[in-house]
Design goal:
Layout: E1 3-4, E2 13-14, H1 27-30, H2 44-52, H3 67-76, H4 78-82, H5 86-103, H6 125-134, E3 144-151, E4 159-161, E5 172-174, H7 177-180, E6 188-194, H8 216-231, H9 288-293, H10 312-317, E7 321-328, E8 354-363, E9 372-376, E10 384-385, H11 390-393, E11 406-412, E12 426-432, H12 437-447, H13 457-468, E13 471-475, E14 482-486, H14 490-493, E15 497-499, E16 505-508, E17 517-523, E18 529-536, H15 538-541, H16 547-555, E19 559-560, E20 565-566, H17 571-577, E21 585-595, E22 616-624, E23 627-630, H18 631-638, H19 668-691, E24 702-706, E25 713-718, H20 723-746, E26 752-755, H21 761-775, H22 784-797, H23 801-812, E27 819-822, H24 851-864, H25 875-910, E28 913-923, E29 927-932, E30 937-942, E31 950-956, E32 962-968, H26 980-984, E33 992-994, E34 999-1004, E35 1006-1007
Length: 1008
Amino acid sequence: AAGRNGGFDGSSAGRGGRGASRTNQSSQRQQQQLKRTNGKKKDDSDAKDTLENGGPKTSPKKGKENGKDHAKKQQNDQPTRNNKSNNQKKSSDETDSATKDVTKNKPNNRRSRTKKVQYEQHLSYATCLQRYNNESGITTEPTIIRGKIRVMPAKNGGAFVTCDRGSLSKDVLVLDEKSRNRAMDGDYVFVELVPSVDAGIYGDGGEGGTKDDVTLGEFMESLELNDIKNGSEYVGETSNEKVEDSDEAFDDVEYEEEEYVVEEKDKRDETTAVEVEEDEPELWQDDEVQMSLWDPVVNLRKKSRKASSQSRAELLASQRKGKVVFIIPPKASAGKQTSELTPSDESYRDKVPSRTIVGTISKLHEGGNGRFMLIPNNKALPRFMCPSNTKEELNLEDDDDTAGTLYRAEYVYGSWSDSNRWPPCVRVTRLCGSCNVEDETKALLVEHGVDHGEFPPAVLREVDLAVKSGRFFQSSSATSEGEMGWKPTEEMCRGRRDYRSHRVFTIDPTTARDLDDALHVTQLPDGRVEIGVHIADVSHFVQPSSAVDEEALRRATTVYLVDRVIPMLPRPLCEIACSLNENVERLAFSVVWRMNMDGTLSKKKGSAEKCKEDDIWYGRTVIKSCARLDYATAQNIIDNKVAAANGESEVDETLWPKSRQPTGGHTIAEVAADVRLMHQVAMKRRKLRFENGALALNGIKLTFQLEDDGETPKLCAPYPIRDSNRLIEEYMLLANFLVAQRLITHAKGRALLRQHSPSLEAGMQNVVDVSKESFDFDIDITSSKTLQESLSRLSRTCDDELVIQCVTESLMTPMRPAEYIAAGEVNDEDWQHFALNIPYYTHFTSPIRRYADVIVHRLLQATLDDAVSEFPQTQQEIHSAADQCNDKRMASKKAQERSDRVFLSLYLKEHPIASVLGVCLGIGEKTFTVFVPSLGMSTRVFLQEHEDIFDMNTVEGDGGKRKLIIRPKTTVVPGIQPTKEESAKSPSWKSMEVTIFTKLEVACTCEA
């Protein structure tokens, strides 16, 4: 399983999308046979027309327009749109030129391996939107849906589209590239559904062979590299966003608050589940355990679904199919931003919608007329035809080796003609080299659209004004010099509840600099406890529609890479004024509630009846944290290794460093007692949550310890999850739930929620069937509760930890990501969070690094001020901003995973693993997926990359199940220099038959 990459590619790419590794292959392997385009030459205006007739995706700050009015506006806008500015016209001209380049001068060379391609013409945006809106609310299945397309990273691979409004309970399968009709991975599209018949979309098979068969192996392989990467909050929404630190050696890992329990296990079986409303739908308040744990005040009904009795083959056969009829271009690309050098340059705002592509270039062979093609790093994207003048523009010579160079290009929406085999790209430039940290990091930031650069001057000026009044100079007792500090003014504190004298403290990673949250706990006379969660009051400093706000929305999230952080907010805010540092006063937004010692919220029987909100308080506060604990120190306290409950006064500073001990008159014994009390309540609550159906698919996250140069990894190991992480997680989850409840009851449709739908049924059923065949173990996937019960039973009855780990890894594959939504944009039954098994949820606890939390803070304050009707954003605008947050969060996740691969490859380059246990988790036609338990990572192995070492063939077994036959040609381990004796040896084995869950001996190396 040796990784191969002109840059970096470890043999293991992390789960949740890490398997999609970039590979610089040899020319032979890089290029598929180019097919000659003899199709009808189309006028360049057609390409423009596609763009002009299409309405761009709603921008985060603009509301969605409604139905016919929107369609009419699109048509009325045509004259305006046709009169483009000079800047836009220039970009369009480049596109037209690229389009002409592809179609003109068609070679007459008979040896040219080109084939006629003719895509269907797209419908107009107005037509699609009118049909889509006309079907809104209909009871029968729709004929057209809208959503994001996810493409399999394989030649002529299929794709899936999820309806963006839930009007179709299953994903729609788009079988091949002809059905995709020029749509690319990640595009928003309108898909016309094809009647469910045995034949595929195109009965004659079209290009690419039979259309209606997507094998199980291909289906699971596609999930492993697409749905996983689309999902990614590992472990559902249950782990605290802070679960970032675990060990002093590995303490800068960033997690979502839901990350520990199922990794985005959030989605109900949407793919083939047969959802049937029962005569008497169950209400969330009918569940006694739910009432004791969460005490929901909004009595919603659960969305019922009867378990499917279909086999996995039947599930795939019943999959709805469709074809793309329109591609919705984005509002605008990130493009060029203002900078210190060009502070007033805003030409990027008028840029034609485009997307940035990063990859290598390769010269076409016979019949190519010296043309070059761009081979994207993202294997789910097609190859792109470079302009005819690329050689001259890049000063390339015929014998130049481009394998070690990465290039950047732009694909302009609407430029791909229906008669062109390949999409054209423009503005091809050298981006950087490869095989070093800086170049690879630059490439991954550009590729995923998170190369935000420095903050614009206008943003920095606003931040400076926002914090100016609180600045003061503090001298240092250790030196004659001092430093600039910050504290809130009396005016800022006016009207806030004062918690400065309370014993408030933080628990974060050792190296954390932006501290979002702090907690306090108080034992009450009635036997209950008061818990306070205090979150940095970012919305005080970031005003709506300000330059800072616009930039924060554009970035939407902080990007955490192995060796650096790209912040959402400028450092004066995220690390100074907003960060809840110890022994300094800070502004906070708090949720304070009372709960029982057993972890429940419900009042004891016989207690006086009060309004439920009497036990929950929301509001702005001012706090002064007394201690900055890290996870390692908190765990030492929990384990009684330090400040033991027996009253020992001596404190070992290696277990509780002096810099982390309490100040402000609070003692070590008091803080230690608070930590243990919070842990006691949290663990009881956690146990009840899982018994009630919360999922816990705990995958492994790799962490790295770097040398002093900040680039060389000296240690690579799984990140351990401990009780100190889980303590924080429990209280953050509950705070987020309580805020979601307040928003639903008071902000109504504007409430920004975090929704998590069930898993893909076909993928889940595949795991169920394979587990039964391989281990004779039954998994019940009817609900999150039955699934968790099955996993608990497996843990009790199975002695092989590897089996448990492999089943867990396989179950994470069909899980889809949680998403932000505006409550009024979806049915209230769809608010639920599948992984957490609760009716609603949001994100409130990390506004320093998530823009969605900033919106939630503003909405929460509006409910307290009774000013929701005056809120500056409409329901539709909030939903649009939620879409931006979803997109950027996913881009950030992919960038983070790519960074992990870069550093894993660096580590494996210096420390190759000659032999380690691996397990096969998926078999495709020309690939198979290997899971390496010791690294907690999965990677896809491409058979053609190992043709010189193995003979490998896939064959169909009983019931359509694939198996892989491997025969060795040599004893050489890829990436590891063999000795003379090893080179002369004959292989010790003749052949191997590999099926799902087969154990393998694999090598993990990096070939640079």
